[in-house]
Amino acid sequence: MENLDTNNSLRLNTLASSGSTKNRKRVGRGMGSGTGKTAGRGHKGQKSRSGGSIARGFEGGQMPLQQRIPKFGFSSRVNRGSKEINLKNISTMTEVNLDTLKANRIISKATKKVKIFGICEISQAMTVTGINVTKGAKKSIEKAGGTIAAVEVKPVREKFLKTTKKTNQTNSQTTEESAE
Fold first, then answer.
1. The domain 82-148: what is its CATH number?
2. Of 88, 166, 99, 151, whose CA–CA distance to 123 is shortest?
3. What is the pLDDT of residues 21-65, one digit of tens each?
4. CA 109, 110, 114, 119 torsion: positive or negative?
5. pTM over 0.70
6. What DSSP string describes 110-172?
7. CB-based contact 30:36 (threshold 8 Å)
């Protein structure tokens, strides 16, 4: 049997080029190593100590750049679930409500309130229910023979109403009188 190494001497594990691998840097191993004594950390200071790291963006007590520059932008959490729709985009629909708009993928499923705006010519009658409409859009829809149902306004809960002690006392007195 022949020796396999002599026939196939060129393999990945036999390839080598000088200088392709370097020994890792062993710091703090005496003066002759080149990185002895301070181990490449320099002399004194926060960065030379163990555990001594500086937070990202820290500028030595000076007001950091991210705090010096002006801030801008605001995203209201109140209007996160509301969308506006142009009348042009729904002019072909005959019935418009939240369910039909979600079914046609005009609004996302997370949308809770919608308002229709815009003025355009509509070829067919359109019935709008449960959606707010601007004056111009209302004229365009009614001009085409469409109808708009009034949107129900949710009443404000009592715990959100601002009350004073005097109004609370008068309310309790009137409830006592009505109970008698």
1. 3.100.10.10
2. 88
3. 888 999 999 989 889 999 999 999 998 999 989 999 999 999 999
4. negative
5. no
6. T--EEEEE-----SS--EE-S-EE-HHHHHHHHHTT-EEPPPPPPPPPGGGS---HHHHHHHH
7. yes
The per-residue b/e assignment along 62-94, b for 16 or more CB within 10 angstroms, e otherwise, is eeeeeeeeeeeeeeeeeeeeeeebebeebbebe
CA-wise closest residue to 131 among 121, 146, 144: 146
- DSSP character at residue 91: T
Q: DSSP label at 40?
A: T
Reported as half-sphere exposure (CB side, CA atoms, 13 A), residue 159 has a value of: 0
Domain boundaries, the chain: 82-148
pLDDT tens figures, 62-115: 999 999 999 998 888 878 889 999 999 999 999 999 999 999 999 999 999 999
Cα–Cα distance measured from residue 108 to residue 116, given in angstroms and rounded to the nearest whole number: 15
* Dist CA 159 CA 150 (whole Å): 27
| Residue owning tokens 């499923």 | 109
